[in-house]
Amino acid sequence: MSDPRPNVRPERVPLGTAEPEYDLWQPLDPDQAGVFTGLSADERSYRDRARAFVQDEVRPIIDDYWNRADYPVHLIPRLGELDLLRDGIEVPGFPEQSLLAACLVTMELSRGDGSIGTVGGVQGGLALRSIAMHGSEEQRAKYLEPMARGTLPGSFALTEPTHGSDSVSLETRAVSDGDDFVISGHKKWIGNGSIGGVTITWARGDDGQVQGFIVPQDTPGYRATTIEGKLSLRAIWQALIEYDGVRVGPELKLPGARSFRDTSSVLQATRLGVAWAGLGHATAVYETAVAYAKQRVQFGRPLAASSIVQNRLAEMLSQLTALQTLLVQLTRVEAAGELTGPSASLGKYTSTRTARAMAANARDLLGGNGILLQNRVARHFADIEALHTYEGTETVQALILGREITGLSAFA
Q: What pTM was estimated for this model as a whole?
């Protein structure tokens, strides 16, 4: 059929209706208080190596893995190859790594993605540390190096389906049978618990005290199901584990893990790392908000030219700077061996609350684009929710601080 308007030329697509691509991943190195100016060469090297890994190897793939709730397990040995898994733990054959260097690695990995940051927290911060702190010489010699290299995945099984915040009340049992131990019970939310490797399992022994065991995941009776339907940390698999008469020999019992106090020593050592992970998320959403505000044009000018947007960015920078200052100071205290449990709780409490608030601000500043995976903020926004909960919810951290402030315990 002929065009009824033969003398009218088809209209072209109006200029300005196509949206540009935004570059939202460039590091800004915000450090208004200069807290990172005194980094040693080694500390800068670890930070820069973790950042390069994120930019070159995480950035191109993470949205797809997160969207599919798939786990880029090939990155675990790569993290080990780059020496980004140890969380400051001494392992024969590896160079010394300061606590601040380890924290900077955690920050940079989480700045890239919460799931990748969690890989380091689980593999090094929890599983590797449990063996380093409470294992025998033989266990350390056997497990530390392959776990640090990422060739042996590790997980940390404490939380149970009916015991989250009250993990001290765990009910999984390890009953003596001759020289062996037979483990029965359930664990939930166990990162790396269903990918092979070993699971550091916490269970009550015959004396009623909490003890630790190294459980190979191919042991008969160990059944792990990957939890589906998560809306947070979607690029790492976490498991629901059933221990159905899992038998382990005496060589797999951690001799230094005799009570829940020993379990808590591992958690306290990693709580500061969780706070640094929150700083990584906070840094990511701040960088994204600044980049977007400069590139997004509305009402004939960049968003960044608006006074209210500048005010919001200033608020975010203030929050970020305060968090940086707190965590660097707490890390110095920890390096001196003087960090208390309440101080560690203060770091975690402040960090995830701050990251949460900054993510909400950044999400809103991006408008409708803030809910798109490709624009970075939404993924961090969701992942911070998990970080805010694990290793002690905000309420638990507040009760620890409240007990420190008042001298009175509000725990049941």
A: 0.94
